[in-house]
Each structure stands twice: as C-alpha cells, then as structure tokens.
Design a protein that fits this description.
The N and C termini lie far apart (67 Å). The strands form 7 sheets. The protein has a 5-stranded parallel β-sheet with strand order 8-11-14-4-15. The protein has 34 helices and 19 strands. With 747 residues, the protein is an alpha/beta fold. 50% of the residues lie in helices and 11% in strands.
Length: 747
C-alpha cells in the first residue's frame, strides 16, 4: 500500500486547483475587463432575469415526447441532469411550455410584468416544478454560459491610494493597471457591496449607455430589457458614485478604479437570486441605515457624511433572479396588494428610495384558494397581473408509476420490491382522477364508443393509446383520432380532470405504510390492502366523499378490485410468457412479415422471397390467416389501407425514423399474442401447473423434461420480470397461482 501524501502536499494541490478554478471562472475583474467581456459576448451579459431563466430552459435542451393525445416539447431542465435525475419532474410538459412561453413574452415586453401563478390541487407537483427551475438556475449559474456579475466599491488603504484612500490628484488617463479591483484584503480599508446586485453596466450614465448599446454586435432583434436600457443605480450605489465623482472633480475614470466586478451564483441557501417566501404578514423588503456601522468607519470622510441605506428582505435577495411565493393566496389580501404596482412598474417603494428591480415573480396556490379569490371584488385588479398556469394531477399511469417507484426504492431500503408494486398504486391513483366523458359534445358515432369507456379504458387510452378490445376497427380509429379532444374536454371547467382524486402525497403515505411492514419484501398486494384501509377514512379525504358515477367512475372502493384484476392480468401474461411455447419476438416477426406483404399488395408489387431470392406475389393466404386471428371485419383491402395510412401518419411525426411497428400497432400485436396463447391453452396451463409445483419445492415429482421447463420459466421470471423467491412465496400465499391455473383452464 502506497504511503499517503503529506498534509502540506494535499493543501498545496488544493490551493493550486482552487486558484486555477477561480481564475477560470473570472470571479473578480476590473470594470474595464468586464466591459471587454460585454463587447465579446453582449447577448449573455445584457440579459434580464426573464431572459436568463428562459436561456436556462434552453440550455438543457428539449425533446419531443409522443403521447396518444399528440406530441409535446419537454425541457431537459426538468430531468435534473446535474444530479443524475434525482428529484426530477415526471410529466407536466404542458406546464413547462406555458411557463417558458410566459418568460419569452416577458422578454419581448422588456420586463417581467406579471406574476406566473401555478395553481392546482395539493400534491400536483407545483413545488417540484419550482424546485427544478431553481436548482437548474443554480447549476446554470456555475457554468461559463450562465455567469452573472455584480459590483462592489473598493477603498484602498492610505499607502495604496497615495492620495488619501484613492482620492485627490489631477485628472489623468485611466490606466487598466491602476484599478483597485485586484487588491488583496490587507491593502483595502473598506469594501462596500450592495444587496440588490446592480448590473455593472448601470454605472454608465443613461445617454452614454444608449450609445454603447447601439454599437454592440447583438443578434438581430435582440430584446434589450427596460432594466438594461433605462435602469439606474440603487440609492446606495448612486450616493457612493456621486461622492466619488465629486471628490475626483468629475474624473469618471478614477471613479471606475474603485469598482470591482464580481461573479455571483444563484443560491436558495444563501438567498441569492432565488428566494422562497412562505405565507407571512409583511411586505418583503426593508432598509436600514448603515453609515454609523463601525465596520464602515474606514470609508472616506465625504461618504461618512452621506446617509447610506442597506436594503434587505426577500425581494432584495431575489433581485436579478426570481422570487417564489409559496401558497401566495393564503396571505391576507392587504399584504400582497403592493405586488400590483411592483410587478407593473418593476419598482418597489421604500421610505427613502425606489428600488429598481430586475426580477421574475412566480407563485403557487391551491385551486380552492384561487376559486375563493376569484369571487373577491379585488380579483379584477389582479387578473391582468397574473399569468395563471394550471398544474393538474398526473393522468398518465407511466409517469405516476415512475414517481412512486422512486419513493418505494427509498422507503424499502435493501428489501426486495416485488414487480408491479408501484404500478398498482399509480393505477389506482390515476383511476380516482378520471372523469366520465361528456358524450354529448361528440358526434353520435364517437359518443357511443365514449359512453362505454370505463375508468380503466380511459387511463389506458391516455397512457398507451390502447382502445378497448371489443371496439370495432372503425370506431377504434375514430376514438384514437379524438384522444386529444377527450384529453382537453374539461380544460375550461372549474372541476377539470386532474383536479380531484388521490393525491401523490396521500399515495406516498400508503407506500410508506406498505414498505414499513415486517416482511423482507414489499408486495403489490400489501399496497392494495393499504389502499383499502385508506378508503375507510372518507372523513379525512375529500375525494372519497364524491358520489359514484355510472360506468364505475369515482367508485373508489370498486376501483381497487379493478386494479387487483389488472395486476392479475399482468402476472398472468408474464407467467404465460415464461412457460409459453412461442417467444415474444415471434409475434413481432409474424406481424412484420404480414405488414411487408400488405404494403406490397397495396402498391401492387411483388415481394422478394428471403429463402429463394425470387420476386413472388404477396402471400394472400398468410395475410388472410393473420386477419382472421385479428378478427378483422369488413373488406380486407380497406383494413390493409388503414394500416398503411397509420404508418404514414407516424412517419410524418417521426421524420427520418424507421417505423416502429410495436409502437404503431401495439393493440394488434396484443391480439395476435392472445390468440396464440388461446391456441396453446392446454399446453400453457400444464406448464403453469408444473411451475407452481416447482415453486412449492416439489419439483422431484415432475418428469426431467417438466423440471427443466419449470426451472427455465422461474429463471425467466427472475431475469426478465424482476421476481424473487420471496415474491413467489407471497403470491402463493394469496392463491394467485390457483387463480392463474383456473383462468387458463376455463377460458
């Protein structure tokens, strides 16, 4: 084992590394050096707070996410790449786009003139959204492309200044080397910062600043903000600037010697450019006079006679970034009326000064509080200053499952989490949020299909684009064509789909209870037991007090059995696959061959025979056999034409990509698989029996061939589906094996 390096060596290496990083990040520079940076990269250095946040969205990239109801842009910011995806936001792409569009609108306006107010039910990820945004801004501010700068005033000691702490002397040519920005602490008598973090360019007077901005190589139509074009120094910085200018007899260059431009970073912990305000009873800014502070006694006499004020509070801490009002509407109305003028003008009035702000205001509130606020007379005054962004509960089971899977992994620790545990919780939660379709809004042909949709049908349609198996092909196509309309049908209603139902917070309590059991594993059946226990407490949860609707909607206790049945269906599929005679890939190969022959039939072309290399006519018998299995009704040529049209529509949405038949025709592949299982029902049932005998530890009673097949099935369930021996034990305890065998024998 090599000897560890001595402490001094470690410290020297750390010192060198930190010094290099400090220089690389340009943490400190003179005003002249910063002006050179502005000339080099003006688009970055002239950003307002709204532009900075919008650029933060853009920095982490975007991707198009495809759903049955259409494609939508997702911002990589909310995948939290800086932390490996920890605490990411699942789904909610609509919210991401609305907030981004609001920021871009503010950029075009030149100022952040509205409060972006996220509203939705409790636990709908409003806080998660804002936390992702804040943490993204924190990380972005550490990167070269996200660098932010402020300035402070430096007053050198007598021996350094040579003129009485930097004063005196005749006007002369400004020397870059004469700046006090790089002085060490022992050569400085006083350093005066400013909590507002004024932009360094505000040191340039308005008229001269306008001339400078006109000469910068900015992109066409670059939206300069009011803050950069017309902003002025804070009262404190202005007092220092005026005192220095007077002491130097108007020599502006000597004033700039005292300017140290410093990089700063967005930080919630240190309340820098990201501040969260809890409901409270005060205006979020304050001031105090600092002239008498002993720590500033080294200031020049001309400044000691000037009344300097230090500003504080949440708005001041958030300047040059964004301020987040948590549960804004819980505050008494009188205590946030000041937001009307502050947001509209970009200024905040204090007793001794007007604070000129560069700040994005965001907030969150519960739908119940928003509904009450709408009824108040003052709402009309606020309406024009609020940009309302709705954040509903997740309606896609896949996203809800990912959310719960992360929570289960944390809660379970080293214990095994059985397959489908997060799924059953997610499915029940989403089913409680489903609303019966408003069939009267649709044409009669579609209304008939919608009237028969169960909550499970609707959830599967939203997440997988899966239509009920009993629907005729023409109605199935019609339903898929109107998924977007169904998804948005309640957008304008007070009680929209996704406003009421089981909250993720309540479901996480269920998962914690299930994970807190005494067993060495966490099971989906235990989760269902905990959900059953939750439904007994209707006095505690508003969504449980709703009246059930026809079709099974809002009947939350019966929905538990729907989920249980769905769980058994999933296990059924996995067990049948494990002992099945046909591999999953075989269905795909059969269907791919079928589609190939259909395409050549429609085009009236021959097909190359893979075995002989000859060009043969399409295999009509094979196509008819597959269509018989798929229970196709109507004319075969019309059905085949619809398949080609569906591939064409997919290709338009996925330019340059090879069609993925498993995605485009998932429902047909499922039918093909089920039909194959039905043909081999007896053989599969026998295999399931042998599997259960092996699981019971009695495999010696089986023939060698049956033993081999049973153990192969067990290995498949473990390797491909995530089961473990404890999972099998638990399933047997709940007689799931009997259920599977009976179902396979009786179907």
């Amino acid at each position: 084992m090599a000897d560890a390096p001595p402490v001094q060596t470690i410290l020297a290496q750390l010192s060198q590394s930190i010094r290099q990083e400090f220089g690389r990040q340009r943490r400190v520079m003179s005003f002249a050096e910063y002006l050179e940076l502005v000339m080099t990269e003006p688009a970055r250095q002239l950003r307002s707070a709204a532009q900075y946040l919008a650029d933060c969205f853009d920095h982490y990239g975007t991707q198009l996410v495809r759903y049955p109801h259409g494609e939508i842009r997702r911002f990589g910011l909310f995948d939290c790449p800086w932390s490996g995806g920890e605490d990411q936001l699942f789904g909610q792409e609509q919210v991401q786009n609305e907030v981004y569009d609001s920021l871009r609108a503010m950029v075009r306006e030149g100022r952040a003139n509205k409060v972006i107010l996220l509203h939705g039910p409790n636990g709908s990820a409003k806080s998660t959204f804002l936390r992702c945004l804040g943490r993204g801004a924190e990380h972005y501010s550490t990167l070269p492309e996200g660098a932010l700068f402020r300035f402070s005033w430096i007053f050198p000691s007598q021996k350094t200044g040579k003129g009485g702490i930097g004063f005196g002397g005749a006007p002369g040519t400004f020397d870059l080397g004469a700046s006090y920005a790089g002085l060490p602490d022992d050569a400085i008598d006083a350093r005066l910062g400013d909590a507002l973090r004024d932009h360094p360019l505000l040191l340039i007077p308005l008229e001269e600043r306008g001339q400078l901005l006109a000469t910068l190589p900015l992109p066409p139509s670059y939206p300069l903000s009011d803050y950069i074009r017309h902003g002025t120094l804070s009262a404190k910085n202005r007092a220092v600037y005026d005192a220095l200018l007077a002491s130097y007899h108007g020599d502006y260059e000597k004033v700039l010697r005292h300017v140290r431009v410093e990089r700063f970073y967005v930080s919630q912990r240190y309340r820098t450019a990201w501040v969260t305000v809890e409901p409270q009873l005060s205006v979020d800014a304050s001031e105090r006079q600092v002239t008498a502070d002993r720590s500033l006694a080294a200031l020049p006499p001309s400044l000691q006679s000037v009344a300097l004020f230090e500003y504080g509070g949440e708005i001041v801490g958030a300047n040059r970034g964004f301020i987040e009002y948590d549960d804004l509407l819980k505050r008494p109305l009188e205590h946030y009326k000041y937001l009307l003028t502050t947001v509209e003008r970009g200024e905040l009035s204090l007793p001794s000064a007007q604070l000129f702000l560069d700040l994005v205001f965001v907030g969150s509130c519960n739908d119940i509080h928003l509904s009450a606020f709408r009824e108040m007379p003052d709402f009309q005054s606020f309406k024009g200053r609020f940009e309302l962004v709705r954040v509903p509960y997740i309606l896609d089971v896949r996203h809800e499952e990912l959310l719960y899977q992360a929570r289960l992994t944390e809660a379970a620790g080293a214990r095994h989490v059985a397959p489908h545990t997060a799924y059953v919780a997610a499915l029940w939660a989403v089913l409680t949020r489903m609303r019966k379709p408003q069939v009267e809004r649709y044409p009669s042909g579609l209304a008939d299909a919608l009237s028969k949709l169960t909550p499970l049908d609707k959830a599967l349609l939203y997440s997988e684009g899966q239509v009920p198996a009993e629907l005729a092909p023409d109605k199935a196509r019609l339903l898929l064509a109107h998924v977007k309309d169904l998804w948005h049908e309640s957008d304008g209603l007070p009680v929209y789909e996704g406003r009421v139902g089981a909250s993720p917070r309540e479901m996480q309590a269920v998962l914690l209870a299930a994970a807190g059991g005494r067993t060495s594993y966490v099971s989906p059946l235990v989760v269902l037991d905990e959900i059953t226990e939750l439904t007994r407490h209707s006095a505690l949860y508003d969504f449980l007090r709703q009246d059930p609707q026809p079709g099974g909607y809002l009947d939350h206790k019966k929905l538990i059995e729907v989920v249980r049945q769905r769980l058994f269906d999933r296990i059924d599929d996995e067990v049948r696959m494990a002992v099945g005679l046909v591999e999953e890939s075989e269905y795909a190969r059969v269907f791919e061959r079928y589609i190939t022959h259909v395409m050549h039939t429609v085009r009236k072309e021959k097909v190359r025979n893979a075995a002989t290399g000859r060009m043969d006519e399409p295999d009509v018998a094979m196509m008819m056999e597959v269509e018989k299995t798929l229970e196709v009704t109507g004319r075969p040529d019309e059905f085949r034409g619809s398949l080609i049209s569906k591939i064409g529509a997919w290709s338009i949405d996925h330019k340059g990509q090879k069609p993925v038949l498993g995605e485009i025709f998932s429902d047909l592949l499922r039918k093909l698989r089920d039909a194959t299982f039905a043909r081999h029902k007896k053989e599969i049932a026998r295999g399931v029996k042998d599997l259960m005998i092996a699981l019971a530890g009695e495999s010696l009673s089986l023939s060698p061939e049956a033993q081999q097949q049973a153990h192969k099935a067990i290995a498949t369930l473990i390797e491909h589906h995530g089961y473990s021996p404890v999972s099998y034990t638990h399933l047997r305890a709940h007689e799931t094996d009997s259920y599977l065998v009976c179902r396979l024998l009786l179907e």
